[in-house]
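User: Hey, my collaborator sent me this sequence without any context and asked if I could get a structure. I don't really work with proteins. Can you help?
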Amino acid sequence: MEMRTVLFVDDDKLVLSSLKRGLIDEEYNKLFAESGQEALSLLEKYEVNVIVSDMRMPEMDGLTLLKRVREKYPTVVRMVLSGYTEINTLLTAINEGEIFRFITKPWQMEEEFKPAVRQALEFYNSREHSTVEK
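Assistant: No problem. I've predicted the 3D structure and written it out in structure-token form, which is a compact way to encode the shape of the chain:
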């Protein structure tokens, strides 16, 4: 099976640094972006299978980014990693961005975050596998 790619988007460099360290042993390609615009540029260059985005970012918020990803790259599995847990924002993100999973900050890397990303990759693989069989 080909190596899958996950794109992590957060305007906080410390969060991205923590993700880089925490995910170093994970067996998928990892891309990191500090803005929605940078994420869109990476999506044009690389085949991304899963995107994990913060919600609150300057210039382009996570919801706007994930809506654009859904429109332009509909097969990419979309996840949210955010400290912002206001219920209306959660529901909007889930409904409008068609979010696979919403993970709140701070997260538990081993117990919560890594398994969620692996599940998103499994979901991507199962969807791809089912379309190949048809």
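In plain terms: The longest strand covers residues 77-82. You can pass these tokens on to your collaborator as they are.
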